[in-house]
Amino acid sequence: xxxxxxxxxxxxxxxxxxxxxxxxxxxxxxxxxxxxxxxxxxxxxxxxxxxxxxxxxxxxxxxxxxxxxxxxxxxxxxxxxxxxxxxxxxxxxxxxxxxxxxxxxxxxxxxxxxxxxxxxxxxxxxxxxxxxxxxxxxxxxxxxxxxxxxxxxxxxxxxxxxxxxxxxxxxxxxxxxxxxxxxxxxxxxxxxxxxxxxxxxxxxxxxxxxxxxxxxxxxxxxxxxxxxxxxxxxxxxxxxxxxxxxxxxxxxxxxxxxxxxxxxxxxxxxxxxxxxx
Length: 277
Hints:
39% helix
């Protein structure tokens, strides 16, 4: 397994097994510098969203990095925000995102949250965008088992991805979602994979990082890779951006994985998707 490795979604489109998250990267110099650094470090997968407000800057950073290269060399994800989840509004939202990103398609388009009243209409729009070629793959974000079950009963095209908050401190709580997705050939992406740096001093994390001579963030990212998910670490620090993708020269033992499993404390650092039941 290398940092350039990919896995196939169920539509045979390949997705890089580690991506660079851009939540809370302010539009402007911070987002531009961080994305350029990530691309230089070897990331081929950039994740953004309409609500992040940084699509234009990210598009410029990718374009400047990729001059003379092929568009398909970089995998770009964006998401439709809650206020745009009507059928027509979702179609229009992607057109706006494409213009900001400076591309005529995205590699992956996601429904950002499972808004009760509009999520099925939003998915119907994503199916059209997929058929029209504006999105090479489509999926959801922050969907729990009940949300996916509802969607599978209604959809024509099964989602290829479900992106959720996932790290050692909530993995057991969300193991049912991960397993359900695996059973239905839906890839799980893990955002906030290092728990927003809030648990780096945990004794178990510290012990394992010392044993492998790596940063605590690398331990948490490696854990999620070995769980079969696609982690999306984010940082503005050049050193950490590079470290976060250099997780392929060590492997966690079964005992270390079990110890990390036991760290679960049902920690949720973003909104709880259950509010959309």
